[in-house]
Amino acid sequence: MFQKILVANRGEIAVRIIRACREMGIKTVAVYSEADREALHTQLADEAICIGPASSLESYLNMEQILSATIAAGADAIHPGFGFLSENSKFAKMCQKCRITFIGPSAEIISRMGNKSEARKTMMQAGVPVVPGTKEPVYDAEKGKEIADQMGYPVMIKASSGGGGKGMRICEKPEEFCEMFRTAQMESVRGFNDNTMYIEKYIVHPRHIEFQILADKFGNVIQLGERDCSIQRHHQKLIEESPSSALTPKLRKKMGETAVHAAKAAGYENAGTVEFLLDRDGQFYFIEMNTRIQVEHPVTEMVFGVDLIREQIRIAAGYPLEKKQEEIQLNGHAIECRINAEDPKKNFMPCPGIIEDLHFPGGFGVRIDSAVYSGYEITPFYDSMIAKVIVHDKDRISAINKMRSTLGELILEGVVTNLDFQYEILNSPDFQEGKISTDFISEHFSI
Ligand code: MV4
Q1: pLDDT exceeds cutoff 90 at 308
Q2: What's the gap in Å between 64 CA and the centre of ligand 1?
Q3: Cα of 353 vs its chain's centroid, Å
Q4: Under a CB-based contact definition with an 8 Å cutoff, are residues 198 and 150 in contact?
Q5: Given this model, what pLDDT does residue 302 score?
Q6: Residue 445 has pLDDT above 80, yes or no
Q7: Using CB atoms within 10 A of its CB, is residue 147 exposed (0-12), middle (13-18) or buried (19+)?
Q8: How many CB atoms within 10 Å of residue 76?
């Protein structure tokens, strides 16, 4: 097992990883920017090294600086968390060259799955259902239009390197196609230096269902059910839950087996997520594979009783999976609400400031993953997520009621948050009846 792990991240995920390491008897090294001198992750780790100024580019994204810190501290491995360098194949490769274990899949798998048109092709070849569309990359608007005309509209134009909605367009009619294709492609060239595009049939009002998988170095792959992440706004997830109210046990089994098959086809290793869209007829389609631990991983941990960070570390250290698929049992229902320092009344503008007064709720089946404390200053340099509130109960309606009660106890003074907005979603009859899709927020709120 590793003696010492460097945590190449900040905020609640850095704290989450430090806690897992401590429980496992592994020493931790935090890295921090000048803006994070007083941050919780800086204070909780056994050692902390300043890696640069507040700007992410010069600190949490500074690969040389992070590798130097790892070598200086004598750490054997780096946990990248999510965001920042977590899906950077160049960084994974640099770790390999420095003989430092990158806790995640190999550089090759990160880059293969990061190229979404290639990932799509891999899945098609493995017989995993993908959204009807192109098999080969498309570079030219006119060629793309011929394909779209044949497929029938609406279609979705996607950048192969895209993410978070960048380089993505919904095209409703042929007249709009060429211009849309070119702007999406330009966005991709500017954002990712890649002009590779692909085209898919547009799935209307889908659910976003993702499966958690774990794969060890010995070819064992298991799945830990799904998370329903349909409640999102502008590609920012707000509420996630497990299990999804859209799946029957039969469909869950079929999608789970498909996710395992997809991971095996990719030669996957470590924790990963297979993303599907589920349409209103119960058809599901692979869209992407994420090669990192995700923000919403706690809902899976709560219903399956598996510590996913611990599993990531064990897998990277060369241990086989502790549990077989038959030993994995779904138990009850978990919901996560993301609390962000942002103002829903001002188009969800980030609202930095000092937390003047803080009270986190507790109780049976209540979990808070956060890195803020009373007196903590939320700076404008990083993501506005300040806490994840996770509840676990016997079924969906009990979990919703527990979340409403839990959020009611939460006190967070000094900064504007989306807490009341979360309340409104939870109180919505459609949400309570499970009538949700990725369009839920835009259909229910005039914002
Ligand atoms: C789609 C889609 C409908 N049809 N593809 C958005 C982000 C990227 N990961 C994939 N996305 C979508 N791809 C086809 N062919 C709808 C979305 C989508 C979405 C997906 C998951 C979660 C939230 C979403 C919000 C808007 C659109």
Answers
A1: yes
A2: 34
A3: 26
A4: no
A5: 98
A6: yes
A7: middle
A8: 18
Q: Tens digit of pLDDT for each residue in 230-281?
A: 999 999 999 999 999 999 999 999 999 999 999 999 999 999 999 999 999 9
Ligand 1 site, residue 206, Cβ cutoff 6 A: yes
Encode pLDDT of 135-189 as tens digits: 999 999 999 999 999 999 999 999 999 987 889 999 999 999 999 999 999 999 9
pTM of the model: 0.97
Q: How far is the CA of 17 from the centre of ligand 1 (A)?
A: 29
Choice from 211, 235, 437 to test ligand 1 binding pocket (greatest atom count within 8 A of CB): 235
What contacts 73, CB < 8 A, 6 or more positions away? 4, 6, 29, 47, 49
CB 330 within 8 A of CB 303: yes
Average pLDDT of the residues of the chain = 97
Residue 178 per-residue DSSP state: H
Q: How many residues does the chain have?
A: 447
**Burial profile 216-229: b = 16 or more Cβ within 10 angstroms, e = fewer:** beeeebbbbbbbbb
Residue 249: predicted pLDDT: 97
Peptide bond into 361 cis (omega under 30): no
DSSP 320: P
| Backbone angles phi and psi of 60, in degrees to 5 | -70, -10
* Amino acid letter for position 320: P
CA atoms within 13 A on the CB side of 31: 32
pLDDT at position 447, please?
Answer: 67
416 phi and psi, to 5 degrees?
A: -80, 135
H helices present in 28-173, as ranges: 40-44, 63-73, 89-97, 107-114, 116-125, 141-151
Contact 30, 376 (CB under 8 A): no
Q: 232 CB under 6 A from ligand 1?
A: yes
The residue type found at 434 is G
Rounded to 5°, the CA angle 163-167-170 comes to 105
Q: Phi and psi of 191, rounded to 5°?
A: -80, -35
Q: Output the pLDDT for position 244.
A: 98
Q: Tokens 């835009």 sit at which residue?
A: 442
- CA-nearest residue for atom 20, ligand 1, is 208
- DSSP annotation of 88: -
Half-sphere exposure of 398 (CA within 13 A, CB side): 10
